[in-house]
Hints:
The complex is a heterodimer of chains A (about 425) and B (about 650).
Chain A: H1 13-34, H2 48-68, H3 72-76, H4 78-95, E1 97-99, E2 102-108, E3 111-113, H5 115-132, H6 141-160, H7 164-169, H8 173-179, H9 184-203, H10 205-222, H11 231-254, H12 257-266, H13 273-281, H14 285-297, H15 308-311, H16 323-356, H17 360-384, H18 402-420
Antiparallel strand pairs in A: 1-2, 2-3
Helix pairs in contact in A: 1-2, 1-16, 2-18, 4-5, 4-6, 5-6, 5-17, 5-18, 8-17, 9-10, 9-11, 10-11, 14-16, 16-17, 17-18
Chain B: H1 3-27, E1 40-45, E2 52-53, E3 59-71, H2 81-88, H3 92-105, E4 111-117, H4 119-128, E5 135-145, H5 151-154, E6 157-159, H6 162-167, E7 176-178, H7 181-185, H8 187-191, E8 195-201, E9 207-210, E10 226-228, H9 232-241, E11 247-253, E12 258-265, H10 278-287, H11 297-300, H12 309-319, E13 329-337, E14 340-352, H13 354-360, H14 363-375, H15 380-392, H16 415-421, H17 445-456, E15 460-461, E16 467-470, E17 483-484, H18 492-504, E18 519-531, E19 534-548, E20 555-561, H19 571-584, H20 590-598, E21 599-600, H21 602-610, E22 623-624, H22 627-642
Parallel strand pairs in B: 2-10
Antiparallel strand pairs in B: 1-8, 2-3, 3-4, 3-5, 6-7, 8-9, 10-16, 11-12, 11-20, 13-14, 15-17, 18-19, 19-20, 21-22
Amino acid sequence: xxxxxxxxxxxxWLTIIIYLILVGFGYLNIMSASHxxxxxxxxxxxxxxxxQLIFVGISLVIIILILSVEVKFYERFSxxxxxxxxxxxxxxxxxxKDINGARSWYGIGSMTIQPSxxxxxxxxxxxxxxxxxxxxxxxNIKDQIKAAIIVFLPAFLILLQNxxxxxxxxxxxxxxxxxxxxxxxxxxxxxxxxxxxxxxLKFGITITAIITATVVFGIYxxxxxxxxxxxxxxxxxxxxxxxSYGVKLxxxxxxxxHQQNRINLWLRLEKDPAKLELxxxxxxxxxxxxxxxxxxxxxxxxxFMEGTRTTGKFVPEQDTDYIxxxxxxxxxxxxxxxxxxLFSILIxxxxxxxxxxxxxxxxVYGYGVASILFVHFTINIGMVMGLIPTVGIPLPFxxxxxxxxxxxxxxxxxxxxLDSNRINEW
Amino acid sequence: MRKLLLLGLVTxxxxxFIARLYYLQVHDAVKYSPLNDSAIKKEFTYPKRxxxxxxxxxxxxxxxxxYDVMVIPRExxxxxxxxxxxxxxxxxxxxxxxxxRAYKYSPRLPYVFLSNLSKDDYAVLQExxxxxxxxxxxxxxxxxxxxxxxxNVLGDIGEVNNIxxxxxxxxxxxxxxxxxxxxxxxxxxxxxxxxxxxxxxxxFNRDLGPFENGKFDTxxxxxxxxxxxxxxxxxxxGELLMTNKRGGIIAIEPSSGEILAMIAGPNYDPNLxxxxxxxxxxxxxxxxxxxxxxxxxxxQGVYEPGSPFKLMNALIGLQEGVISNxxxxxxxxxxxxxxxxxxxxxxxxxxxxxxxxxxxxxxxxFATTYRRILEKPENAREGIELWSKHAKSFGLGNYLNNDxxxxxxxxxxxxxxxxxxYPERFYSTYTIxxxxxxxxxxxxxxxxxxxxxxxxxxxxxxxxxxxxxxxGESIHERFTTPKQTTINxxxxxxxxxxxxxxxxxxxAKYLQIDGIEICGKTGTVENFIKVDSTRMQLTxxxxxxxxxxKDDPKIAIAVFVENGYFGNRFAGKMASLMIxxxxxxxxxxxxxxHYVLRHTLEHEYEKPYSGKPFKINRETTLETxxxxxxxxxxxxxxxxxxx
Lengths: 426, 643
C-alpha cells in the first residue's frame, strides 16, 4: 500500500496503475477479438481496435481534464451534471437512434454516443450530493423516497429505451444506501424477495409457499422472546405467496421471450429435450460458445491472437459484452484469474479509499463507484461463464465501446480527484 | 459493520469466479490440439492410389476421374429446374428430395448432389454449369479396371464403414478403403498416406484460410504400384472356361508359389463395383444367395477333395513303409471292411501295384494303404495322428497364411478330432472314407493346388501368394522360403509316375496334349446338400489336379467344378486346356475347348430349388448353351487367342 507521503500530487497511483493495466490488456483483447486478417495498422479505423485506440487517447485527455479541474467543481455542479444527464436521456426519445432494438444512442456522423453510460456517474454525483446534505437522514422515509427518485428516474428512462441490462446497474446504488444508513430490514427484504422469486420460478408456488411457511413459523415458534400474535407471520406468508404469484405472472407475461428464455436456461426449467436442443442452438448459443472458448484456453491459454474460436468469431459480441471469453481462450486460467484478481483489488482499493474520506460527499461517491464497478464486473463475467442469466452489460475498461470506456474513466477519475484532495479537506 | 457487506461480496465474487475458471479451464479442460478443436477443420488431400499390374507388366487397375455435382444450398438462385434435371438425368422429385436433404445437412456447406457423372454427362454439363448458381462440379479419383477380369482377385474399393474407422484411426468418414481381393490385402501399400490441411473456420463453418499458416499440415504420400503374380491372359482364359459353371481354378507356379490364375465361378465384371451404381450392383451380387458371386470358391470353397487325395495317402504309405512300389493289391471291385463294402470301378480280381492304383484310381488299393498307415502304430488313434501330421505338412487343414483377403482352413482330422467324434473306441475302419478323399477330409481348391505343387517340387512348396513386386519393397520372406513336407524326395517318383499314367492310360487318357507330359489325377466327389432341412444328393463334383511338364514343372493346377459329375468330364478338360494355354500359348485340343464352352451346368444348379423331383449323375443329360451365347463365347475366345 502506498503511504500518504508517497502519493505524488496526492493521486492514488495503485488505482491508476490497475486502471492502465486493465485498459491496455482490454485493448489487446479487443484487437484479438475483432481483427479479421493480418493487422496492418493499429490505427485502422475500419476495425474496432483502431477506433478503440482513439477512445483510449480521448480517455487520457479526459483524465487530464478531470484531474486539473478544481475539486469543488464536482460537488457544486453535481445537480447540473445530473440534469444534463436526464435531459440527454429524455432527448433520446426524440433524436435517438435504434441499435439492436434499443433506443440508447445518439448518432453523430459515424460515431454513436450512449448517454445511459454517462448517466451513471451523473447519478452517482447527484446522489452523493443529496446524501451528504446535513439534513438528509436515510432513516427517514421521506428522504428515502427522495434518494430513490434520484436513482429511479434515470433507471426508468433507460428501461423505457429498452435497455434492461443498463437499468439493472442502477440497483448497485442499493449498496450505497445501505452503507449510508438504510435500515437493516430493507436488506433482509431484498434478499428474501430475491430468494423467493428464484424459488417460485424453479419449484412453483406451492412448494415455495410450504418452504416459506416452514421458515416463517419456525422462526416464530422458536423465538425465545415474548410471543406476539400469530397475525405477523400469517401476513408475511400471505405477502410472500402473493409475491410468488407476481413473479410467476411477470415471468410469463411481463418478460420478453428472449428474457424469459435466458432465465429458463439459467434455472434449467425446460425439461423437453427437443426444445432444450433448440434453445441450445438459439438462446444458449452465445453462452455455450463462450464457455467452450474459455474452457479451450486451459491453464496457459493459446496465446495472443492465437485463439482459434476468437479468430473464427465463434462467440458473437466477443469484442463487447463477451470480451472475457477472449481472455479465457488466449490467456488461459492464469490470465483470466489475473483479470479477476485485478478487478477485485481495484474495487476493494476504492472501497478502502472511500472509507478514508473525510467529506461525506467523497465517501458516498467512492462507494457508488465501487458499487457500479462491482455490479458490472459480477454480472458480466458471471454471464460469460454461465453463472448467471444473460444480461447485456459491458465489462468496465475491457469491452469495446467509446461511451463505455469514457464514462467508466470519468466515473473512476472523478473519485481519484476527490480522493487526492482529502488531506486538504479540513 | 455496514462497511463489510460490499467488501465481503467483492471478495466472495472474486473467489467464486476463480473457482469457476478453475473448473472450466483446468478441471474440465481437454488437452488442446488442433485435432480436437471444433474451430479447426481438417481437410484431406488424397494421394494417387497405386496401380496394379499383372506378371507380364500389363496394367490391370488404374484410376479415372469422376465428377460429382456439388451444391451449396444458400447460394442457389432460382433456376430452370426442368432443364437442369434433364441435364442431370434425374426427375424433379429427385431434385427436390436431394436439395431438401442438402439443406437440412447445412445451408452453408457443400453437399454431394449427384455423384459419379459419366464423362459424357460431364462434358455436356460443364458448359452450362455457370448458369446454375450454388452448383459446381468436383473432380474425384475412382478406380478403373482395364480388363473385365479377375474381380475376385483384384477386389474393389468403397467407402469406409464405422468398423473400419474404429479399427484404424487413419480413416475418417468418406475415405475409400479396399473391400476385397488385392485392394484389401495391399490397402496400405496402394493407398499411400493422405495429407492433412488444417483450416481455420468461422462460426458458420466457412473457411478463413490455413490454420497457423499450415504449421501442422502434412503432405500426401502417393500409393505404390504393385505387380501381382496373375497371368492376365491365363486368368481371362480360365474365366472363359468357367462360364456357366460354378467352382474354382487355382494355377500355381511350383518353383515360386506364385498364383498364375485364380478363377471363381460365377464371376462378375469388376467395373460393376465402380462409380455411381456401385451400391446397387454390390447389393445385387450380395443378395444372390444361390450363385454367390462374391463367394470366392477357389479360396473359400471347402470341398471333400476326392480321389486326388489318394496321392496324399500313397505318399504317406510310402514314407511309413507300409506299401512299396511293386506290391500288388487285389481289388474285388471294391473293398470289404467290417460288414461294409466300398465299391470300385476295377473289375473283380484285378491286381494293382501303386502306379496302376493311381492310374485307375483304385479304391481298394488306397483303402488298404490307409488302414495299414493307421494300424502301423500301437493303435488307430496314434495312427491317425501320424497320418494327419504328414497331410498337414502339405499345407492342408489350416490357413495358408498368405496374402489373399479370404481363406478357409479346410479339415484334416487328427487324434483330437476323432476323440471328440468317437470318445469310446476308435478303429481304422471307422474312417476308411478318408482313404479316397471323402468323409472328414476337406480342402479348398487353393490347398489342393498347393499340394499338387508340392508333389511337382518333389517335397516342398512355397506359400502360394499373389504379390510379385512392390515398388521399392521386397516381398515378405514367408513367400520366398520353401516349406518342407515330411515326405522324403524319393517317394515322389512313383506317385508322379502314376500321375503321368493317369494321362497316358488312365482316367484322363482322352485329355492328352501333344508334346506336354502332364501328370494329373481325376476326382469325383459325392455331393449332398440340405435344402429346407431335407438332405438330398446332387450330381457329383468334378475335380482335377495336375502339373506339367513332368520333369520341370511350370504350372500346378487344381480345378473344381460343382456338379460337374466325373473328374474328366469338366475339371480334367479345363485343367488340360489351362496347361496348354499357359505352356504353349495356343490350343491344339479345340475339341475339349468346344466341349467346355458349349455345355452349361446352370440347369444342374437350379434342380434342387425347382421343387420338382430330379435325377443325378448318370441319369442326367448335359445341356448346351444357346447358339448366340456360344457365338459370344467363341468371340471372346478369339479375342484371347489374338492377344
